[in-house]
Amino acid sequence: MTVHIQKKISSLSVSTKKLSHFAGWALQQLKKDDHNLNIVLVDDPEMSWFNNHYRQKKGPTNVLSFPFAEGAEIDLRLINVKELGDIIISVDTAKREAVEFGQRLEYRLNWLIVHGILHLLGYDHEKGRKEAKRMAQKEQELLSTYTQIRRNRMTHLAINVDHVATIRQARGITEPDPVTAAAICEMAGASGIVIHLREDRRHIQDRDVYLLRKTIKTKMNLEMGANKEIIKIALDVKPDMVTLVPEKRQELTTEGGLDVISQKKKIARTIEKMTAKNIPVSLFIDPVEEQIQASFEVGATFVELHTGTYCDVTSERAQARELQLLQTAANEAVSLGLRVNAGHGLDYHNTAPIAAIDGIEELSIGHAIISRSVFSGLDRAVRDMVKIVEEAGR
Ligand code: PXP
User: Fold this and answer.
1) Residue 347 has pLDDT above 70, yes or no
2) Which CATH class is domain 156-392?
3) Which ligand 1 atom minimizes the distance to the CA of 370?
4) Among the options 115, 119, 306, 344, which is catalytic?
C-alpha cells in the first residue's frame, strides 16, 4: 500500500507524514491496505475550481473523492487494479471547520480523509438518512479508535531520582530519601522511576533498590553497567526493566552511549539472563544506525536514545541536526520492532521537540527536575515537566 500526499499549499502546521500514517492505518482497518491512495491538499480557490468543474457547484467544499477510473468502460476488477482513487481536501475549509467545531486541525483533516476514503469505498451520505447514519458511525468508530491508540502511545515521563541520593550521600545520613522522592514523583504524574545502581555506590544504595522495588507503583527501571555483581542484584530484585549503560568510575554522569557493536557477545549474554527472568532490557545508545541494528541483533526490547549531544550543542542549526538524527534513529528502531525511550540532559527548555518525536515512548529525566525542585518543590517540578511532555506528544 502507498498513500501519496501531494501538498499544493504553501504552509501547513500538520505534518503530512502524520496524515499519511493515519490514512494508511484507516485503509488497514477497512481491509484495503493492498490498495494505493492519493490525497491532494489544496486551497479554497483550487477546490472551487474542482467543485465547479466536476459537480457544477459554486465555491469551495471540504473534500471531494474521485474513485479510480470512475466511469471507465471496462470493469477494472477484472484486471485487478489496486488503486482506490484520489481525495482532494481544501485545507482552507478544513481550518475554518476546525475552528467552528472546536477541533484541532489534524483531527479535522483526519476526519476529512476518512470521509473521503469511505466515499471511495461506496459509502454515500447523500443517499438518505440510513446511509448517512451508517457513514457517520463508521467515521466516528475509526477516529475514536485512532485517538485512543495515539493516547496510549503518548510519550511518558520517567524520573531519575539518583540526584536525591547524591545529596543524601554528601552528608552520609538518611536524608533526603530517594524512596520518598519516588513516591512524590509518582503522585505528581510520573509514569516510572529510574535509578542507577553504580558499582561504586556513589548515590543509590542497595537498600534503596530493595525498598523501591516494594514501593514503586508505576514502573521501576534499573540502570546499570553489565557488571557481574550488579547483574546478580538485578536478577534478584527483578525490576520492571533494566537499562544497560556504559559505566566509568571517573565520570560525573553517564558519558556517551553503549558501544553495542564492540561488546555484542557480552551484552547478548546479559540480555539472555534478564530475559530468562522476564526482565525486558533497554540499551542506552547514541542515535546511530549501526548501534540500533546491533541492539536489535543482540535481542534488546528497547533502546534508549542518548539525547546528550542534542542538549549540549549551542547553535540552533546544530540542535536541528541532532534532532533530525534522533528522529531518524527512532524511525529505524521502530521499523526493526524495537521500543524506544530517550534521555540525558533534557530540561524544561529542550524537552518538547524530543517528546514530539513519533515512536518515542518514554523520556528519562533526572537532573533538571531535581534541580528545579530545590526552588519550586518536587511536586511542582514534576507536574511542570509532565505538562511539557504531554502537550508536545499530543
Ligand atoms: N538516561 C540515562 C541512561 C542516564 O544515565 C541518565 C543520567 O543518570 C539519564 C537518562 C537522565 O539524565 P539527566 O539526569 O541529565 O536528566
Assistant:
1) yes
2) alpha beta
3) 14
4) 344
Q: State pLDDT tens for residues 66-77.
A: 998 776 666 666
Among protein residues, the one whose CA lies closest to atom 5 of ligand 1:
254
What secondary structure letter does DSSP report for 158? E
Which one from 119, 163, 196, 203 is the annotated catalytic residue? 196
Strands (E) located in 68-140: 83-90
Angstrom CA distances, 334 to 59, 135, 255, 337, 361, stand at 43, 33, 25, 5, 11
Return the domain boundaries, the chain.
2-152, 156-392
Query: Is residue 253 within 6 Å of ligand 1 at its C-beta?
Result: yes
pTM of the model: 0.68
367 lines ligand 1 (CB under 6 A): yes
Nearest CA to ligand 1 atom 3: 284
Is residue 306 annotated as a catalytic residue, yes or no? no
Distance 286 CA to ligand 1 centre (A): 13
Can you read off the three cell numbers belonging to residue 348? Answer: 524544561
**CA-to-CA distance for 103 and 303, rounded, in angstroms?**
35
Ligand 1 contact via 223 beta carbon (within 6 Å) = yes
Q: Does domain 2-152 have CATH number 3.40.390.30?
A: yes
Closest-CA residue to 302 (of 251, 345, 363, 228)? 363
DSSP for 258-299, please give it: --TGGGHHHHHHHHHHHHHTT--EEEEE-S-HHHHHHHHHTT
pLDDT of amino acid 234: 98
- Residue to probe by mutation, ligand 1, list 157, 160, 365, most atoms within 8 Å of CB: 160
Instruction: Report the alpha-carbon angle 308-152-286, nearest 5.
Output: 20
The DSSP line for 27-60 is HHHTT-TTSEEEEEEE-HHHHHHHHHHHH---S-
Is-same-fold flag (2-152; 156-392)? no
Q: What are phi and psi of 339, to 5 degrees?
A: -90, 150
